[in-house]
């Protein structure tokens, strides 16, 4: 485990310890620790917490870090929590850029692009696993020829 992975695991474990025992969103079932928050003794994801309080579930994120670039993108609050968490893995000097270094500003832009790619890797991995699990479920519940039966079902449905 790299030092970055260790710090991330430690950060997530500390956040889990602050949450009540149930560590999924009480409203939608979200499980990503980066999106979860304690809310009046319950656990809610950021999207649900905002929606339940009547506010927009969208927030503005500074991809390159607020001190590097005022540019923001609008994204769901859960994704904002995930991207903010990813910025915690940046070298602190790049994120804070105390002397407004143009090189660190550029480093922030590179790290923003990297975080976008890393998030895409996570999402593609989650979708691949979901499709593999769904295929196994269909094979076990319907049979080895489940996809042929599904095609026949679709043809009948289309008329
Ligand atoms: Zn939720």
Task: Describe the structure in your own words.
With 159 residues, this protein is mainly alpha-helical. The protein has a domain of 55 residues: Ribbon (Cysteine Rich Protein), CATH 2.10.110. Helices cover 58% and strands 10% of the residues. The strands form two sheets. A two-stranded antiparallel ribbon has the order 1-2. The chain is extended. The protein starts with a helix and ends with a helix. The structure holds zinc ion.
Average pLDDT, rounded to a whole number, is 95
Distinct helical segment count:
6
Q: Spatial order of the strands in the main sheet?
A: 1-2
Radius of gyration: 21 Å
Give the second-level CATH assignment, the architecture of the domain at 1-55: Ribbon
Overall SS class: mainly alpha
Small ligands present: zinc ion
> Biggest sheet, open or closed, and with what strands and sense?
2 strands, antiparallel
> In CATH terms, what is the fold-level topology of the domain at 1-55?
Cysteine Rich Protein
Low-confidence parts: none
> Roughly what percent helix?
55-70%
Q: What are the secondary-structure elements, in order, as H or E?
A: HEEHEEHHHH
Shape by Cα distribution: extended
Straight-line N-to-C gap: 55 Å
Compute the number of strand runs.
4
Which CATH class of the domain at 1-55 is shown?
A: Mainly Beta
